[in-house]
């Protein structure tokens, strides 16, 4: 009985082994790829990594940085919004600068008031007082002169009728009254002349200086509202209300580096592609008027023809990576900029990586 069981088990094991061998010997048909790899459409084509950008004169997106530092109070736009040149985008806390503007404007107004006061001289009331003082001085001189004349006539008729001391006092009183009249008359002329021209000029300079300081503070106050430098679309906002930004940008928690407060793109019907051509392939580039290229969008079987725009004539270290295992990073590349019309049935965004083939000579 035991031998029979062992024999049956051996037969079952043999059959299982033969079945497994047969099943593993069958070749499974591979699944078709979701999309085909980007083929080289040219007999002699140069491959290059490309990145989609907004189509601008500079060929790059617009990085918006604030000109002053401060805490973000409000963000007035959202990512994807279209803006016009001069539209407010971000408002920073301007309370301190606003108080500074008010202080300097008040100082300029005070300087203007003093300048107007100098220009309005002589004051009518002051002129009336000076005229009255001059009139009183003339009256005093006339009184002293009349008193002297009386004593001199009496002295002429009878020398003993007037003492020498009284006559001398009358003469001195006339001299004092005449000198006092001259002083008062000069004071009247000074009052009538108004403010000294040099005082007016000095006050004008002070008013101009304070006005310019107030205008500079007002211009600096306007910097606390970040506005759109051009017509475009908001591609990225890297800050939030309550955050702190400076002319160096804002701190990006994920990359742990400084980033622009906003990134803007164009609203044109074109997009640009910036390609990086390996330095060892530069001698194979055709003349600019003969350059033809085609772009392949990753993840699809779609390709688009590209229109040559320009070459950025500066070979720089490679910074745009494709994350391929065989990719070299210790080389330098030449940026070549193309453009293409936005396809209606396909979503393409600035920052997207694409494959580009350029027809070589």
Q: Keywords, please?
A:
361 residues; alpha+beta; Elongation Factor Tu (Ef-tu), domain 3; OB fold (Dihydrolipoamide Acetyltransferase, E2P); 6-stranded antiparallel β-barrel; 4-stranded antiparallel β-sheet; 39% helix; rod-shaped
Q: State Rg.
A: 48 Å
> In total, how many beta strands?
17
Largest beta sheet: strand ordering: 1-12-16-14-13-17
pLDDT averaged residue by residue = 86
Give me the CATH fold name of the largest domain. Elongation Factor Tu (Ef-tu), domain 3
Low-confidence stretches: none
Strand content: 15-25%
Q: Tell me, what is the CATH class of the largest domain?
A: Mainly Beta
Q: What is the helix content?
A: 25-40%
- Listing every helix as H and every strand as E from the N terminus to the C terminus, the arrangement reads HEEEEEHHHHEEEEEEEEEEEE
Number of helices: 5
Overview of this protein structure:
- This protein has helices spanning 2-25, 95-119, 124-157, 164-193, 197-222, and strands spanning 45-54, 62-64, 70-75, 82-83, 88-92, 225-227, 232-237, 244-245, 250-252, 257-259, 262-265, 270-278, 293-297, 303-311, 316-317, 332-341, 353-359.
- The protein starts with a helix and ends with a strand.
- It contains five helices and 17 strands.
- The strands form four sheets. It has a six-stranded antiparallel barrel with strand order 1-12-16-14-13-17. Strands 2-11-7-4 form a four-stranded antiparallel β-sheet, with no helix packed on it.
- By secondary structure, the chain is an alpha+beta fold.
- It folds into four domains: 45-55 and 268-359, Elongation Factor Tu (Ef-tu), domain 3 (Beta Barrel); 62-93 and 224-265, OB fold (Dihydrolipoamide Acetyltransferase, E2P); 98-117 and 202-221, no CATH class; 122-194, Orthogonal Bundle (Helix Hairpins), CATH 1.10.287.
- The model has no long low-confidence stretch (mean pLDDT 86).
- The longest helix is centred in the middle third of the chain and has 34 residues, at 124-157.
């Amino acid at each position: 009985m035991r031998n029979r069981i062992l024999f049956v088990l051996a037969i079952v094991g043999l059959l299982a082994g033969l079945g497994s061998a047969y099943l593993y010997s069958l070749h499974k048909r591979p699944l078709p790829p979701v999309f085909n790899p980007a083929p080289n459409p040219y007999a002699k084509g140069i491959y290059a990594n490309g990145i989609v950008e907004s189509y601008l004169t500079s060929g790059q997106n617009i990085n918006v940085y604030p000109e002053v530092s401060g805490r973000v109070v409000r963000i007035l736009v959202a990512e994807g919004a279209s803006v016009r040149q001069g539209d407010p985008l971000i408002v920073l806390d301007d309370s301190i600068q606003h108080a500074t503007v008010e202080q300097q404007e008040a100082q300029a107004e005070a300087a203007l008031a003093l300048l107007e006061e100098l220009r309005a001289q002589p004051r009518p009331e002051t002129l009336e007082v000076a005229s009255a003082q001059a009139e009183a001085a003339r009256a005093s001189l006339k009184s002293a002169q009349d008193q002297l004349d009386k004593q001199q006539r009496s002295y002429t008729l009878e020398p003993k009728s007037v003492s020498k001391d009284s006559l001398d006092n009358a003469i001195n009183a006339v001299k004092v009254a005449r000198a006092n009249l001259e002083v008062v008359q000069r004071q009247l002329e000074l009052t009538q002349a108004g403010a000294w021209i040099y005082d007016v000029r000095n006050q004008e300079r002070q008013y101009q200086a304070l006005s310019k300081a107030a205008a500079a503070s007002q211009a600096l106050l306007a910097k606390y509202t970040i506005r759109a430098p051009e017509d475009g679309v908001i591609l990225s906002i890297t800050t939030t209300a309550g955050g702190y930004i400076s002319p160096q940008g804002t701190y990006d928690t994920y990359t742990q580096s400084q980033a622009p407060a906003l990134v803007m793109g164009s609203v044109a019907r074109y997009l640009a592609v910036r390609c990086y051509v390996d330095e060892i392939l530069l001698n194979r580039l055709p003349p600019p008027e003969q350059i033809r290229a085609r772009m392949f969008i990753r993840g699809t079987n779609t390709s688009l023809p590209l229109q040559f725009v320009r070459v950025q004539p500066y070979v720089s270290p490679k910074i745009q990576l494709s994350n391929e295992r065989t990719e070299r990073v210790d080389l330098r590349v030449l940026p070549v900029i193309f453009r293409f019309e936005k396809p209606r049935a396909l979503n393409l965004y600035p920052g997207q990586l694409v494959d580009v083939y350029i027809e070589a000579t």
